[in-house]
Amino acid sequence: MKLHEVIKVTSKPKKRLGRGIGSGRGKTAGRGTKGQKARGKIPLRFAGGLSLYKKLPLRRGLGNPKRSPRYHLITLSDLNSFKNKEVVGIDELIKSKIVSSKEAKKGVKVLGVGEIKTSLTVRLPVSKSAQEKIEKKGGKIEYA
Length: 144
What we know:
Order of helices and strands: HEEHHEEHE
Number of helices: 4
């Protein structure tokens, strides 16, 4: 075994707390002075004695988070890359790279911003203005 083949040890020795003033960690042993945290055993992740569930906001109802869905929004002008009489759904949007699969998990909604040049069958939630523009061009909405 040569000196350059020796395995390097990176672990440090454990700090020996409360072993006299000369040790650098004597007297209060790094706990400050007084208070609940300076005495006895403290649970890991101790945060002032108040339970985590008491710090969280109270939301009524079974299972709680019943919030309105946060859609990923696209515009009508984004749909101009599709051909005439084509069916547009989430899978088609992912294939044409208009939305990513991560964004599609939230859901996709079409807004009426811009103009549409082709008649399409849209299988997505759409806004009222988008629905009017799609149906004006001869397309239709198939979303339940």
